[in-house]
Design a protein that fits this description.
Blueprint (H helix, E strand, L loop, with lengths): L8 E8 L3 H10 L1 H6 L4 E2 L7 E10 L6 H10 L4 E11 L3 E8 L1 H17 L12 E6 L6 H9 L8 E3 L1 E7 L10 E8 L11
Antiparallel strand pairs: 1-3, 1-8, 2-6, 4-5, 4-7, 5-6, 8-9
Helix pairs in contact: 3-4
Length: 200
């Protein structure tokens, strides 16, 4: 049997994660869509996230320099208040839930995160931020699934929550036939609104 060798690269993004109860609220709203469209490739609820910067495939050695810079950024910022609202689709295939709340602050945070990444000498596709959670992908040949599921989310309005941590995340996308899974490389609490300056 061959021994597993450590990958030379990792696919990386920086994100926020809704708390469990906010995700479970959306999951309940999605129950009819789960039942109606079981062939869609549904993302696991534990992997739902709001991407601030997608860095793509990086050499493993490029990741450690990001950590102190992102830790410093998180320590200086207060949590952003957000909620999940409505739904839509990209290209009639990708189902997503939209965001509401402090969206201007979210855009500022994303800009600061992207500037920090560039300061570390990492180049990436700096696309405009479109705050959302990606929920599922329709299979080719079933274009109505994402459209119908998005329409069912039109009236959804979730509770407000605070994004308490900044997450540096790695994924296994493109590394096999199985589903995409994500793992935290590290995360940092937003401590800017804490008078004591304490973190976790």
């Amino acid at each position: 049997m061959k021994e597993h060798t450590q990958a030379a690269t990792v696919r990386v993004f920086i994100a926020l994660a809704p708390p469990d109860d906010a995700k479970e609220e959306l999951e309940r709203a999605l129950a009819p869509a789960y039942a109606a469209h079981p062939r869609m490739r549904w993302n696991r609820i534990e992997d739902w996230h709001v991407t601030l910067a997608f860095l793509g495939e990086l050499p493993v050695a490029a990741v450690p320099p990001l950590r102190p810079r992102l830790a410093e950024l998180a320590a200086a910022r207060r949590p952003v208040r957000l909620s999940l609202r409505g739904g839509g689709h990209f290209d009639e295939r990708v189902l997503w839930s939209g965001m509401a709340g402090e969206l201007a602050e979210l855009h500022v945070l994303a800009s600061e995160v992207r500037a920090a990444v560039k300061e570390c000498g990492i180049g990436f596709a700096d696309r405009p931020l479109r705050p959302h959670l990606t929920l599922a992908r329709a299979r080719r040949g079933d274009p109505s699934a994402a459209l119908e599921a998005a329409a069912a989310l039109t009236g959804f309005s979730g509770r407000e929550w605070e994004a308490e941590r900044l997450h540096l995340v790695g994924s296994n996308i493109g590394r096999g036939p199985g589903p995409i899974h994500y793992r935290d490389i590290e995360s940092w609490a937003f401590d800017g609104g804490n008078p004591s300056g304490g973190g976790s």
